[in-house]
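Please review this pair:
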Amino acid sequence: MRRFPPPWTVEALEGGFKVIDSNGQTLAYVYGHADSRHAGIAKSLTLDEARRIASNIAKLPDLLGKVRPDDNIQAVGNLSDERHVAEDTAQGRAIAPAQNVPKGRRPGGRSF
């Protein structure tokens, strides 16, 4: 499994931001428009919204508390692998992804 060790940081780009892990791997790009009118017309984010989203993405390792020993970081309240397995199973059976769902449709009938 690939690892993306914390801390994750946000770097400003022209027209957006990118989230980077401590190894320098880019994890996400979030773009926006400087002018809120242009963002509204394009139905996209403003730069402030893009900055806030990138910032929140960068906080995910801390919020999840999911730090592994080989990440070289001390964290309080780490989630154990056993807990993850328990969360990912239902009555002893692994949770399978939804099957027979038409492409472009979510379970429950909503499009995405």
Remarks:
- The longest helix spans residues 47-58.
- Residues 9-94 form one domain.
- Residues 74-103 have pLDDT under 50 and may be disordered.
- The chain has one domain: 9-94.
